[in-house]
Write a structure and sequence with these properties.
The chain is an all-alpha fold. Helix content is 63%, strand content 0%. The chain has helices spanning 5-14, 19-26, 30-37, 48-57, 68-73, 75-78, 87-111. Helix 2 crosses helix 3 (30-37).
């Protein structure tokens, strides 16, 4: 069984998002997020829609929580510890990451 509580908590900390904010932005109950954070529910038992909502709010994919190699390729993770990160620099990095994701998607659509 695979649990993602620690990875989820790390991502929330990285983005300065607490349980209440994540719950508000994903339309989930605090208790549902708390269950994931406390490893009371396995990855396979997290509702796919809920996981997608959590991933979108945290600017990652559901696979981010399962695969260390994907986490290492994450733009925000890869640019940590390169000087002092401010809330503004994190927002810019997230915007760049989202832009790149959208660009790759559009490029794949155009090429087909």
């Amino acid at each position: 069984m695979i649990y993602i509580g620690e990875v989820l908590k790390n991502r929330m900390d990285m983005l300065s998002i607490d349980i209440s904010e994540l719950a508000d932005r994903t339309f989930l109950d605090n208790s549902e997020i708390d269950k994931i954070l406390n490893d009371s529910v396995t990855f396979d038992n997290i509702d796919e829609y809920d996981l997608t909502m959590i991933s979108n709010v945290l600017h990652c994919t559901p696979e981010y929580f399962m695969d260390d190699s994907i986490r290492k390729k994450d733009f925000l993770v890869g640019t940590q510890n390169r000087g002092i990160d401010t809330e503004e620099s994190k927002k810019i990095k997230l915007a760049l990451q989202d832009y790149l994701k959208d660009f790759v998607f559009l490029e794949s659509v155009i090429s087909n």
